[in-house]
What does this fold into?
Amino acid sequence: MARGLWAGALAGALMLVVCAVRADPAPGSAASLAQAYRAIHAARVVDLTHAFAPGIPHWKGFPDEVVRTPFTQKKDGFTAQVFTHVGQWGTHVDAPAHFHQGLATVDQIDPAQFVLPLVVLDIHRQAAANADYQVSMADVRAWESRHGPVPAGAFVALRTDWSKRWPSQEAFQNKDAAGVFHYPGWSLPVLKYLYETRHITASGHETSDTDPGFRAYEDDFSLESYVLGLNHFQIEFLANLDQVPEAGALVIVTFPKAHGGTGFPARVVAIVPR
It folds into this structure.
Protein backbone atom coordinates (compact mmCIF):
# COMPACT_ATOMS: atom_id res chain seq x y z
CA MET A 1 0.00 0.00 0.00
CA ALA A 2 2.77 2.44 0.97
CA ARG A 3 4.79 1.53 -2.11
CA GLY A 4 1.66 2.09 -4.18
CA LEU A 5 1.32 5.62 -2.84
CA TRP A 6 4.89 6.41 -3.85
CA ALA A 7 4.47 4.86 -7.28
CA GLY A 8 1.29 6.83 -7.83
CA ALA A 9 2.97 10.08 -6.89
CA LEU A 10 5.88 9.48 -9.23
CA ALA A 11 3.47 8.60 -12.02
CA GLY A 12 1.78 11.93 -11.45
CA ALA A 13 5.13 13.69 -11.74
CA LEU A 14 5.94 12.17 -15.11
CA MET A 15 2.47 11.58 -16.58
CA LEU A 16 4.17 9.40 -19.16
CA VAL A 17 3.14 6.20 -17.44
CA VAL A 18 -0.31 6.28 -19.03
CA CYS A 19 1.23 6.75 -22.46
CA ALA A 20 3.72 4.01 -21.78
CA VAL A 21 0.92 1.60 -20.93
CA ARG A 22 -0.85 2.44 -24.20
CA ALA A 23 2.15 2.39 -26.52
CA ASP A 24 4.48 0.22 -24.46
CA PRO A 25 7.68 1.73 -25.90
CA ALA A 26 10.93 0.05 -24.99
CA PRO A 27 12.64 1.77 -22.03
CA GLY A 28 15.31 4.12 -23.31
CA SER A 29 13.94 4.07 -26.84
CA ALA A 30 13.36 7.19 -28.90
CA ALA A 31 9.62 6.82 -28.32
CA SER A 32 9.95 6.58 -24.55
CA LEU A 33 12.31 9.56 -24.43
CA ALA A 34 9.87 11.58 -26.53
CA GLN A 35 7.12 10.72 -24.05
CA ALA A 36 9.34 11.71 -21.15
CA TYR A 37 10.11 15.05 -22.84
CA ARG A 38 6.43 15.82 -23.32
CA ALA A 39 5.62 14.81 -19.76
CA ILE A 40 8.38 16.96 -18.26
CA HIS A 41 7.35 20.01 -20.27
CA ALA A 42 3.74 19.52 -19.18
CA ALA A 43 4.85 19.60 -15.53
CA ARG A 44 5.70 22.64 -13.40
CA VAL A 45 9.32 23.72 -12.96
CA VAL A 46 10.46 25.16 -9.63
CA ASP A 47 13.88 26.77 -9.36
CA LEU A 48 15.62 25.57 -6.20
CA THR A 49 18.60 27.88 -6.74
CA HIS A 50 19.55 31.26 -5.30
CA ALA A 51 21.12 33.82 -7.62
CA PHE A 52 24.59 34.51 -6.26
CA ALA A 53 26.30 37.88 -5.91
CA PRO A 54 28.74 39.66 -3.59
CA GLY A 55 27.52 39.81 -0.01
CA ILE A 56 25.39 36.65 0.02
CA PRO A 57 25.50 34.21 2.98
CA HIS A 58 28.65 32.08 3.05
CA TRP A 59 30.94 30.20 5.40
CA LYS A 60 32.66 32.57 7.82
CA GLY A 61 36.15 31.78 6.54
CA PHE A 62 35.49 32.46 2.85
CA PRO A 63 36.24 35.81 1.20
CA ASP A 64 33.42 37.69 -0.45
CA GLU A 65 32.83 37.45 -4.19
CA VAL A 66 34.39 40.07 -6.46
CA VAL A 67 32.89 40.86 -9.89
CA ARG A 68 34.77 42.88 -12.51
CA THR A 69 33.69 43.94 -16.02
CA PRO A 70 36.91 44.37 -18.01
CA PHE A 71 35.11 44.38 -21.34
CA THR A 72 32.09 46.56 -22.10
CA GLN A 73 29.91 47.07 -25.14
CA LYS A 74 30.74 50.78 -25.18
CA LYS A 75 34.51 50.17 -25.17
CA ASP A 76 34.87 46.76 -26.80
CA GLY A 77 31.61 46.00 -28.56
CA PHE A 78 30.71 43.24 -26.09
CA THR A 79 30.40 42.74 -22.35
CA ALA A 80 32.37 40.13 -20.40
CA GLN A 81 32.72 39.76 -16.65
CA VAL A 82 35.21 38.14 -14.31
CA PHE A 83 33.71 36.42 -11.27
CA THR A 84 36.09 35.63 -8.39
CA HIS A 85 34.71 33.44 -5.63
CA VAL A 86 35.37 30.17 -3.85
CA GLY A 87 33.89 27.00 -5.33
CA GLN A 88 31.46 26.67 -2.43
CA TRP A 89 29.54 29.83 -3.34
CA GLY A 90 25.78 30.36 -3.42
CA THR A 91 23.68 27.29 -4.11
CA HIS A 92 26.55 24.88 -4.72
CA VAL A 93 27.66 21.29 -4.98
CA ASP A 94 30.10 19.80 -2.48
CA ALA A 95 32.07 17.00 -4.10
CA PRO A 96 33.44 14.22 -1.88
CA ALA A 97 36.97 15.58 -2.44
CA HIS A 98 35.92 18.73 -0.54
CA PHE A 99 36.62 16.83 2.68
CA HIS A 100 38.36 13.65 1.54
CA GLN A 101 41.47 13.61 -0.61
CA GLY A 102 41.31 10.90 -3.27
CA LEU A 103 37.53 10.77 -3.50
CA ALA A 104 35.44 12.14 -6.40
CA THR A 105 35.97 15.69 -7.60
CA VAL A 106 33.27 17.75 -9.32
CA ASP A 107 34.24 16.53 -12.78
CA GLN A 108 34.13 12.90 -11.64
CA ILE A 109 30.51 12.94 -10.44
CA ASP A 110 28.48 10.68 -12.72
CA PRO A 111 26.05 12.69 -14.89
CA ALA A 112 23.59 9.81 -14.48
CA GLN A 113 23.10 11.22 -10.96
CA PHE A 114 21.85 14.58 -12.24
CA VAL A 115 18.18 13.51 -12.59
CA LEU A 116 16.73 11.89 -9.49
CA PRO A 117 13.48 11.32 -7.57
CA LEU A 118 13.05 14.16 -5.08
CA VAL A 119 12.19 13.51 -1.44
CA VAL A 120 11.53 16.50 0.83
CA LEU A 121 11.76 16.07 4.59
CA ASP A 122 9.77 19.01 5.94
CA ILE A 123 10.88 20.19 9.38
CA HIS A 124 10.20 23.90 8.93
CA ARG A 125 7.76 24.05 11.85
CA GLN A 126 10.22 22.35 14.19
CA ALA A 127 12.96 24.72 13.05
CA ALA A 128 10.73 27.73 13.66
CA ALA A 129 10.18 26.59 17.23
CA ASN A 130 13.80 25.54 17.82
CA ALA A 131 16.55 26.98 15.62
CA ASP A 132 18.91 24.20 16.76
CA TYR A 133 16.57 21.43 15.60
CA GLN A 134 18.09 18.38 13.94
CA VAL A 135 15.93 16.15 11.76
CA SER A 136 15.07 12.94 13.60
CA MET A 137 14.23 9.37 12.71
CA ALA A 138 10.70 10.14 13.88
CA ASP A 139 10.51 12.73 11.09
CA VAL A 140 11.69 10.16 8.56
CA ARG A 141 9.29 7.49 9.83
CA ALA A 142 6.43 9.98 9.57
CA TRP A 143 7.39 10.70 5.94
CA GLU A 144 7.54 6.98 5.15
CA SER A 145 4.18 6.38 6.81
CA ARG A 146 2.67 8.85 4.34
CA HIS A 147 4.61 7.99 1.19
CA GLY A 148 6.25 4.59 1.59
CA PRO A 149 9.97 3.85 1.85
CA VAL A 150 12.38 6.51 0.72
CA PRO A 151 13.28 5.26 -2.77
CA ALA A 152 16.78 4.10 -3.58
CA GLY A 153 18.64 6.60 -5.71
CA ALA A 154 16.66 9.58 -4.41
CA PHE A 155 17.85 13.10 -3.71
CA VAL A 156 16.66 13.97 -0.19
CA ALA A 157 16.24 17.66 0.59
CA LEU A 158 15.79 19.03 4.09
CA ARG A 159 13.17 21.77 4.18
CA THR A 160 13.65 24.23 7.03
CA ASP A 161 12.48 27.45 5.30
CA TRP A 162 15.86 28.93 6.24
CA SER A 163 16.21 29.99 2.60
CA LYS A 164 13.63 32.71 3.26
CA ARG A 165 16.35 34.53 5.21
CA TRP A 166 18.33 35.02 2.00
CA PRO A 167 20.35 37.15 1.24
CA SER A 168 21.19 38.22 4.81
CA GLN A 169 24.34 36.67 6.25
CA GLU A 170 23.27 37.79 9.73
CA ALA A 171 19.84 36.18 9.43
CA PHE A 172 21.34 32.94 8.19
CA GLN A 173 23.90 32.70 10.99
CA ASN A 174 21.31 33.71 13.63
CA LYS A 175 23.93 34.49 16.29
CA ASP A 176 23.14 34.72 19.97
CA ALA A 177 24.66 37.24 22.38
CA ALA A 178 27.80 35.11 22.64
CA GLY A 179 28.18 34.95 18.87
CA VAL A 180 27.18 31.29 18.56
CA PHE A 181 25.31 30.33 15.38
CA HIS A 182 21.84 28.82 15.60
CA TYR A 183 20.34 27.13 12.54
CA PRO A 184 18.87 23.66 11.97
CA GLY A 185 20.64 20.69 10.43
CA TRP A 186 20.86 16.97 9.78
CA SER A 187 21.52 14.25 12.34
CA LEU A 188 23.80 11.23 12.06
CA PRO A 189 21.08 8.58 12.59
CA VAL A 190 19.02 10.05 9.74
CA LEU A 191 21.96 10.36 7.36
CA LYS A 192 23.11 6.81 8.13
CA TYR A 193 19.60 5.48 7.55
CA LEU A 194 19.16 7.34 4.26
CA TYR A 195 22.55 6.48 2.80
CA GLU A 196 23.21 3.03 4.26
CA THR A 197 19.69 1.57 4.49
CA ARG A 198 17.70 3.41 1.82
CA HIS A 199 20.72 3.91 -0.47
CA ILE A 200 19.93 7.43 -1.59
CA THR A 201 22.21 9.14 -4.13
CA ALA A 202 22.56 12.63 -2.66
CA SER A 203 21.13 15.09 -0.16
CA GLY A 204 20.79 18.83 0.23
CA HIS A 205 19.62 21.59 2.54
CA GLU A 206 18.79 25.29 2.72
CA THR A 207 21.43 26.26 5.28
CA SER A 208 25.16 26.76 4.78
CA ASP A 209 26.10 23.52 6.51
CA THR A 210 25.05 19.90 6.90
CA ASP A 211 25.73 20.25 10.61
CA PRO A 212 23.54 22.49 12.77
CA GLY A 213 24.79 25.99 13.47
CA PHE A 214 25.98 25.46 17.02
CA ARG A 215 28.30 22.71 15.77
CA ALA A 216 29.45 24.61 12.69
CA TYR A 217 30.32 27.54 14.96
CA GLU A 218 32.88 25.25 16.61
CA ASP A 219 34.11 24.05 13.19
CA ASP A 220 32.54 20.64 13.80
CA PHE A 221 31.59 19.43 10.32
CA SER A 222 31.41 15.73 11.16
CA LEU A 223 28.03 15.22 9.45
CA GLU A 224 29.24 16.80 6.21
CA SER A 225 32.38 14.70 6.44
CA TYR A 226 30.25 11.58 6.86
CA VAL A 227 28.20 12.25 3.70
CA LEU A 228 31.18 13.16 1.55
CA GLY A 229 33.21 10.29 2.99
CA LEU A 230 30.70 7.87 1.46
CA ASN A 231 31.71 9.34 -1.94
CA HIS A 232 28.33 11.01 -2.37
CA PHE A 233 27.79 14.66 -3.22
CA GLN A 234 25.54 17.19 -1.51
CA ILE A 235 23.96 20.55 -2.36
CA GLU A 236 23.93 23.50 0.04
CA PHE A 237 21.84 26.71 0.06
CA LEU A 238 18.79 25.24 -1.68
CA ALA A 239 15.80 27.53 -2.20
CA ASN A 240 12.01 27.31 -2.64
CA LEU A 241 11.52 23.89 -1.05
CA ASP A 242 8.20 25.22 0.23
CA GLN A 243 6.98 25.15 -3.40
CA VAL A 244 7.51 21.43 -4.00
CA PRO A 245 5.68 18.39 -2.59
CA GLU A 246 7.18 15.95 -0.11
CA ALA A 247 7.06 13.21 -2.75
CA GLY A 248 6.28 12.77 -6.41
CA ALA A 249 8.66 15.30 -7.99
CA LEU A 250 11.96 14.93 -9.78
CA VAL A 251 15.09 17.01 -9.29
CA ILE A 252 17.64 18.07 -11.88
CA VAL A 253 21.04 18.95 -10.42
CA THR A 254 23.64 20.53 -12.70
CA PHE A 255 26.97 22.29 -12.30
CA PRO A 256 30.04 23.08 -14.44
CA LYS A 257 32.66 20.37 -14.97
CA ALA A 258 35.53 21.99 -13.08
CA HIS A 259 38.61 19.77 -13.42
CA GLY A 260 39.71 18.67 -9.95
CA GLY A 261 37.11 20.94 -8.35
CA THR A 262 35.87 20.29 -4.82
CA GLY A 263 32.77 22.45 -5.27
CA PHE A 264 31.07 24.87 -7.65
CA PRO A 265 27.88 26.93 -7.91
CA ALA A 266 25.03 24.67 -9.04
CA ARG A 267 21.69 25.10 -10.78
CA VAL A 268 19.01 22.91 -9.23
CA VAL A 269 15.40 22.67 -10.42
CA ALA A 270 12.45 20.50 -9.48
CA ILE A 271 9.99 18.99 -11.96
CA VAL A 272 6.67 19.06 -10.11
CA PRO A 273 3.28 17.49 -11.03
CA ARG A 274 0.58 20.02 -11.90
About this structure: Residues 1-21 have pLDDT under 50 and may be disordered. The chain has two domains: 1-42, 44-272. Residues 2-14 form the longest helix (13 residues). The first strand starts at residue 44 and ends at 47.
